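quick one if you have a minute, typing this from the bus. theres a chain ive been looking at and ive put its sequence and its fold in token form underneath. please have a look and point out which stretches look like helix strand or loop to you. anything you notice is useful, everything is just below.

***
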Amino acid sequence: MMTEWQEKQILKNGALTALTAEIAAALGAPWKARPLREDRDEASYPSRWIVNGEGAELVVKIEEYGAKKGRVNIYGSLHIGNEYVTVYENGNRVSSPDISVNPERGVEVIAKEIKRRLIPEYLRVLALAQAKVKSDNEATARRQAAIRKLVAVTGAEPPDFAKERDKDRFYLRGWRSGDVRVSYDGSVNFERLSVTHEEAEYILKYLYRNKNSAVSE
């Protein structure tokens, strides 16, 4: 048997679902209310979502506390996939815009305020977030390709890139042990890897010979 609070939440969430659908309709194409996901029990969430089919997602909530209690709060989501993307521009963190509107002004006014005060800046910031994800994915692909090449040289066991601790390194075991770590910029670090004096001399001669060749070029 449901409690009185649970019944009120169901009614409140149902009203929010209906309001979100009306706001989406007032925004017009390409914006649409996103269907709720049953696998996440989103019907019980205090938020609803409006999407444009190109990665943009507006989050709609009703303020429950403080001076803005009862107002409609809308902001742009910077979640891409399962990750929240932190965006920087010229060294400064950039946030997604966030607005609130009195619901008594009606859905047409709410939609106009979203178009005027939220969508332009949100789409700009979202584009920065999407570019960052694309750049990070490309860097990850390059790093994994470099790791695979080094693994092939050593005969080491290939790392499981899905594991957090293995995403940027592989491990040497047996007669020579240590960690080989590849950074995003392509540089390689050898951690806890000991070499003999003769091996160190060979490596340094190779490095400095190539450095001098690069300088002369």
